[in-house]
Amino acid sequence: MDRRRFLSRSAAVAAGTAVVGGPFQGLAAGTAHAGTNRAPGADAARGRPGAGGYGPLLPTPDERDGAVRLHLPEGFRYRSFNEAGSPMSDGTPTPGKHDGMASFRGRRGKTVLVRNHEVNGPVGAFGNAAEAYDPACGGGTTTAIVDRYGNVEWSGVSLNGTQMNCSGGPMPWGSWVTCEETVNGPDVGPDFTGQPNTKLTQKHGYLFEVPSDGTSSRVPIRSAGRFAHESAVFDPITGAVYMTEDNFGFASGFYRYLPPVTPWIGGKLRDGGRLQMLAVKKRPNLDLSAGQQPGAAYDITWVDIDDPDPAFAPGTTNDQAIQAVGNQGRAKGAALFSRLEGAYYQRGVVYFVSTQGGATPAGDTAPDGFGDGRGQVWAYNTVTRRLRLVFESPGSAKLDLPDNVTVSPRGTLVLCEDGDGDNFLRGLTVDGRIFDLARMEPVAGDAGAEFAGSTFGPDGHTLYVNIQSRKGMSIAVWGPWHKGGF
Asked: Pfam families recorded for this chain (predicted)?
């Protein structure tokens, strides 16, 4: 959508809130099936077309080399590309740990993909270290121009020298905002890996903007907070960037950043705005990571973060630093979530995922970290300031630790799993039905491999998705989408 059409539509939405509400508006209001009250035995139907699915998953060879990397329904095909270590068009070896990703319309029918690489530690920057934000750090983003079948026209570095680039979000003016899921820096003690931060030259834990048609300025947006960012989405109605926090061992928060100038001026997100954190009205510090009733809903407010970009005194531990921004909000009553990861915006509603939210289902064990459930999906209406539960996993067999999320042209959510066993791409239909789209063939020597970065191409023909592992790669999937929930 070009700028004029987007502004026109945004004005219409702001003027009449009756048109606000994404495809799950009815489900979030409790008028359709919720995951926690489905009938016994409903799982048996979730792979069939009548339940939104496409049929049983079959081992499917990769069009690139014939190896079986995915199990897909009959009629679906895929091609992998930009495998870790393979040379990109600019001569740089493709970094690993492919993660969050977004698609943009390119020239001559091509798709532009901007892709994160969640690399941690002082391992050195990929690409030209002289251009890196921090030459010691190996995270960042790469950009690839591909066709509908995963054939690469060009690929190269678009941001380097950052760390733990987990997810982010596409901005409607044509940029990808990438998020650092860390607060490492020379002022912070060793992180969960035990590696010292003394080699780092910059503070980390920020948003960086990457234009889809170029490279990043590598200047962080510090006023948007220094915390374990996961995802970011823009709402033209409020003019805010909504952000999730994935704080594995501690409570996480849901944030919004109010930029000082609308991003339409200059076509970029500017530093110097206000950072706020979500709180539930009249219920300070409500723990929303706990199990919820189907259709649970809350009226919310926002509390200011007074020091969004803290610098830490010598001796500050990583555990202390990673909670510093969130603790400011919780001191004012901000709500508690468990591991907020993927987020997606549509028509005045922000959908976001709590990876370990919910009660521990019968037959499952509580995962490590903060939160005992197998996942929740929340919907926040930016106009009514109403937060509703869309779905809570009743067990790992149905949905196991959802992470990145996107939406199909038909309105079905695509959820990337980050579970302990087999990892799936799951679909969640607007009437609350879960079905399987893909299962990952286990990656040899990397039990932690997972799906990430799912995004449909601009014309809806292709679903692009990443395998996040040490030997990561991107994949293009296409097939008879019209036969099921997507």
From this structure: PhoX (PF05787)
